[in-house]
């Protein structure tokens, strides 16, 4: 069947090509997202991958599977994007009437964007290969994707292909036109760098998605945030809680300064309604700023990272991400 579709696609049958590639589209998009950290850039890379595959189908020699061949194209398109593109610049502070405290530090990764959970289900249909080291849910988390972005491009590619997707070293070497020894060396360096940046071993695991434990902390967060109850919000935070706001570079680390940050927001009189969604396997909320007109306007998407019964990170994204989540720009105020 596949051979027949390949023959038809090589003869110019677009429907046959779509039937061949359709089962792999979502996992390829997630792969590009891990590589690039941006939903928008991942979609662009996926479209470039499909165009290159369509134009280069005569060169597919079927030594490897079609899936492996597509991953080779996608990986190299992402590497080109990482090497050639000047990533999106940081933005200035954009909350009127809010004077934030001095940030703990400025982010290296201001181009980060969230990935909608609604698109993840079909992305995990293909189980990772035998070389994979990470759980699939961890590999889409904001913390993991952020840590990947600071790796050099080639190390990033090797780590994702080997430890996330589970391809063998010889397969990765062929994908990258490299040697097995070079792949092993890059993987060793990437693992060391990632371990330094992405350490969660000492934290309690997050409660299961949709579990009563997750629902309990989420309900407390919504109540505290919508009522601007700073004490109630701070009570939910870990000592080392972390807040970031890509593409603004401001980052705040530690309960005290995060409390001061939210004190500046609540103290300005801003009040928001929250609409639940999910991103990167984590609970998320669209924030809608209340106005005297009775209409609340979307201002951003807040993604929570949980550990046990506490919040260890809050990441706020711009409202430009709303369409990916099927969220409206405005809602009636509650």
UniProtKB/TrEMBL annotation:
The keyword Transferase does not apply. Residues 218-312 form the SnoaL-like domain. Pfam families: Sigma70_r2, Sigma70_r4_2, SnoaL_2. InterPro entries: NTF2-like_dom_sf, RNA_pol_sigma-70-like, RNA_pol_sigma-70_dom, RNA_pol_sigma-G_actinobac, RNA_pol_sigma70_r2, RNA_pol_sigma70_r4_t2, RNA_pol_sigma_r2, RNA_pol_sigma_r3/r4-like. Residues 22-88 form the RNA polymerase sigma-70 region domain. Keywords: Sigma factor, Transcription, Transcription regulation. Interacts transiently with the RNA polymerase catalytic core formed by RpoA, RpoB, RpoC and RpoZ (2 alpha, 1 beta, 1 beta' and 1 omega subunit) to form the RNA polymerase holoenzyme that can initiate transcription. Belongs to the sigma-70 factor family. ECF subfamily. This is Sigma-70 family RNA polymerase sigma factor.
